[in-house]
Structure of Proteasome lid subunit RPN8/RPN11:
Amino acid sequence: MLEAIRRESAIVAPEEGCGLLFGDADAILGWTPARNVAAEPERRFEIDPAALFAAIRAERAGGQPLAGYWHSHPSGDPTPSRTDAAMAAPDGKLWLILGGEFRLWRAGTSGLHGRFAEVGIEIG
């Protein structure tokens, strides 16, 4: 899954790639790319609302739960930016960020920029 996200991000570079993560708070079981509809996709990401709403509707109908979001930082730094923090709801969702490496974060009410706590990635 991580390599597939890396390939998808390379396809859209130099824009930020983005998409959805499925599973639960303990395991990411799937992912999908989404169109980045940000006004400046080279500097920011905004997941296409149609993809997000479709995932929420599918979850409510018994589909895979939406565990969080992924996006790339073409700059190479997988640390959430202040812009990421301003966009993130403190809802416990996971944020997987690809820079030169992957790092996983959980959106909450404390931590980096007052919003993100890093979560270890275990591949199994």
Summary: The chain has a mean pLDDT of 95. The radius of gyration is 13 Å. The chain has three helices and six strands. Helices lie at 2-12, 49-60, 82-87.
